[in-house]
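SEQUENCE-TO-STRUCTURE ENTRY
===========================
What this section holds: a protein sequence and its matching fold, both as plain text.
Tokens: labelled as protein backbone structure tokens, with as many entries as the chain has residues.
Question of interest: how does this chain fold, as expressed in backbone structure tokens?
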Amino acid sequence: MTRTEEFQELRPLLFAISYRILGSVSEAEDAVQETWLRYEGSPAEPRSPKAFLSATVSRISIDVLRSARVRREEYVGPWFPEPLLTDPYQDPERSAELADSVSMAALLLLERLSPLERAVFVLREVFAFSFRDIASAVERSEAACRQLAVQARRHMDEGRPRFEADRRERERLAMRFFDAMREGDVDGLQELLAADVHMVGDSGGKAPQLARPVIGVEKATRTLAAFIPMLARTGGVMELHEVNGQPGAIFRDRDGRVLNTWALDIVDGRIQTIRTVNNPDKLGHLGPVGDAWATLREVTEARRSAD
């Protein structure tokens, strides 16, 4: 097998590692490309292409994360990961770990870890790498990596999100939720939302966004019931789609351009958290991005006309 073939075979794994370390599709893709350039230019023949490439993409991702942390501290409003619609890496033996680690809630929890803790946790807990390979990847001793893993696991366990275990039940509930939104069904929405439901959005100051998070079933219901009917009057559409392994949707304008994504956290048969990503800089990998400000103006005009 040629180096090109080896790399292409491992590319989904490399992206999956990098995305979980970085929380960014675009940065993960760049890290994977940089990994290929280093692999292609390396004169040595690694004992294990998988170990070499995984180590390389991990080191690159750690370096990128260290510089990204500074930018995220200056970010306007809440920061969310770039939405991922489909995880390219699949491993039936690690399906639970892969699904749990890619959710918005889990990625936000990973933000609490240091870059080294995060990389060690991802490599060990999600992908089951040996401590020998992890030590090579992060350039620390095996003993240090074991300690980092313990620390990271403790931080993650303290805030680990709980989700509805039955995937079909999540999808059924999400379908009812989005149907109720589409119809402006207040009673239907109240039945599906947790009493302390949170609606939070990431716009980065570059797209319309709620002034502050919406907390509580009453406020959330009013906001949700008014949203879809008005968006529909402008020709906008809601496209149901899994987002970061959880039920969600992509909202598009009349020309099919992406306006934002929604991801739902469902716990104990109720929707606990609704996270929207509105920042156009985080949506480009999903296709052409619409002008959310222009859509908002149209929605506002539609509301005035209806009054």
